[in-house]
Amino acid sequence: KAGVTQTPRYLIKTRGQQVTLSCSPISGHRSVSWYQQTPGQGLQFLFEYFSETQRNKGNFPGRFSGRQFSNSRSEMNVSTLELGDSALYLCASSFLTGVVDNEQFFGPGTRLTVL
Amino acid sequence: GENVEQHPSTLSVQEGDSAVIKCTYSDSASNYFPWYKQELGKRPQLIIDIRSNVGEKKDQRIAVTLNKTAKHFSLHITETQPEDSAVYFCAASAGDKLIFGTGTRLQVFP
User: Looking at chain B, which residue has its C-alpha nearest residue A32?
Assistant: First the structure.
C-alpha cells in the first residue's frame, strides 16, 4: 500500500507571496491532519480535515487555510508569507477522525523556506 | 491551553545503556499518549502508545509508563542500539487532536 505523499518536497518563496502544499493520504484514509515542524517547537497542529470538512483547528492565524477534496487529497494554503513561516510542513492521514486507536501516518513533509 | 512539556531536549547514552524521556501534560481529560520516532530526514513514525486506563505498556525494548495523577508519562528504551538514534516526540490527546512535545534528540554512541 502506498504511503502518504506530499508535493512539492521543497519550496522557496519570498515574503508576501502565497503557497499551496498538497497531501495525498493512504488509500482508504479519509482524515488528513497538517502540522508545522520547526526546531525547538516540535510539531504544532494546524488543522484536520475529514470527509471534506474541517474537524479541528489549531492556534494559527487565518493566513493558514486548507481544504479537502472528495478523493481525500488535501491542500494547505499560506497567504502573505512571513519569514517565520519557514518550516517543515507535515501531513498525516488516518482511517477515521479522532486520535485514539486511530494511528496517524505521516508524509515526508514539504520544506518551505521564506526569504 | 493544552500543553505538553518534554525533557530532556538532548540525551546521549552509550550503546547498551537505558534511556528515559519524560513528558508532562496539562489537560486532565487527555486519554491517549503516543510516542513517535523521527530519524534524520525521515517522517515521524509511531513506535508505541498508551491509553489512560493502562499504567504501563511494553514492546520488546521499549516501554511507556503513565502516571495520571501527576500527569506524567515516560518512554523507556533498554539496551540501546545505534539505530535508536533519532528524535523522539511524545504527544497527548486534546479532544480529537494531538498536542506534541518539543522532542528529544537521542544519540547512542557505539
Answer: B97
